[in-house]
């Protein structure tokens, strides 16, 4: 049986051809480009196959499941077949944009449209924090809510385990969406301008939060911040200049007596660096990583 319960839908074009739903429980795989290894992969099939055969001969084909992907071995010779896949039930799929929660039960999304698809590892009530230019309408787990404050979380929404759940966010200028279980205090890193980042701590809990956040930068320096009385649903942010001479606006985010508004040179080796805030805000502390690319300096 498939481990993930998908949603009704259809498959898009595949590298080897197309998957066509003939009836609710029968798929036809039309192969127009035979892979060199004679094996095709159909990603995101959430309904367990009963059998897989050649359409014209009825000959059984070797197949297996790799997670929620169906792999079918084609005959090594002869005409490229049409493959018939009989399913145990109605076709359900796992859309290609589906994101599974991380080990902390958190989703960190950079959406390309209004709808994303989520899978929870464990059932939980979650809240949503949208980073956008306007208030947002959020639809998740068959519940709808409109943000009253663009800078606060919205929820709770019940998330079942192992089920693909659409998340719809309608807002202007959506840059980032964070979804986390109720009770989580989450640190995240956001770009705010040329060469500058912002460390954000969001309280997804029902009680005020306090704690300390620390970030090691690519050049080995460290930023450290503390916070008290962070209200439920609220966020707090600190700017982090990274790479070059940048102006600080707000709390001083690095160790040492640097005047507010003064230039702070922070760099590091060229290349890709994954940054992660170390957050100490109780047992439900979580942190979402962020990748930066530093250019070579000549």
Overview of this protein structure:
The protein is mainly beta. It folds into three domains: 17-87, Golgi alpha-mannosidase II (Immunoglobulin-like), CATH 2.60.40.1180; 97-181, Galactose-binding domain-like (Jelly Rolls, Sandwich); 183-298, Immunoglobulins (Immunoglobulin-like). Helices cover 0% and strands 49% of the residues. It has no helices and 27 strands. The strands form eight sheets. The chain has a five-stranded mixed beta sheet with strand order 8-10-15-12-13, with no helix packed on it. The radius of gyration is 24 Å and the shape is elongated. The N and C termini lie far apart (57 Å). The model is unreliable at 244-266 (pLDDT under 50).
Keywords:
Jelly Rolls; Immunoglobulin-like; five-stranded mixed beta sheet; mainly beta; 3 domains; 298 residues; single chain; four-stranded antiparallel beta sheet; 49% strand
């Amino acid at each position: 049986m498939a481990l993930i319960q998908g949603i009704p839908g259809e498959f898009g074009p595949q590298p080897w051809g197309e998957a066509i739903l003939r009836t609710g429980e029968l798929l036809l795989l039309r192969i127009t480009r035979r892979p060199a290894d004679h094996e095709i992969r159909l990603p995101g099939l959430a309904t367990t196959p009963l059998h897989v055969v050649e359409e014209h001969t009825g000959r059984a084909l070797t197949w297996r499941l790799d997670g929620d992907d169906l792999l079918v071995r084609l005959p090594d010779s002869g005409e490229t077949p049409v493959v018939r896949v009989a399913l145990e039930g109605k076709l359900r799929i796992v859309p290609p944009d589906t994101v599974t929660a991380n080990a902390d039960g958190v989703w960190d999304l950079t959406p390309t449209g209004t709808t994303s698809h989520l899978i929870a590892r464990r059932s939980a009530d979650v809240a949503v924090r949208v980073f956008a230019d306007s208030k947002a309408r959020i639809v998740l787990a068959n519940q709808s809510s409109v943000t009253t404050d663009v800078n606060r979380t919205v929820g709770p929404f019940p998330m079942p385990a192992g089920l693909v759940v659409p998340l719809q966010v309608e807002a202007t200028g959506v840059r980032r969406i964070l979804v986390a279980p109720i009770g989580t205090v989450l640190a995240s890193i956001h770009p705010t301008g040329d060469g500058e980042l912002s460390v954000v701590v969001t309280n997804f809990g029902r009680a005020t939060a306090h704690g300390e956040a620390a970030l090691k930068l690519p050049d080995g320096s460290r930023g450290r911040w503390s916070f008290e009385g962070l209200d439920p649903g609220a966020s707090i942010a600190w700017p982090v200049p990274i790479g070059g001479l940048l102006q600080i606006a707000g709390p001083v985010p690095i160790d040492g007596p640097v005047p507010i508004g003064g230039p702070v040179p922070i760099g590091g080796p060229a290349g890709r660096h994954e940054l992660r805030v170390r957050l100490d805000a109780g047992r439900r502390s979580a942190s979402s990583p962020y990748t930066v690319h530093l250019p070579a300096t000549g």
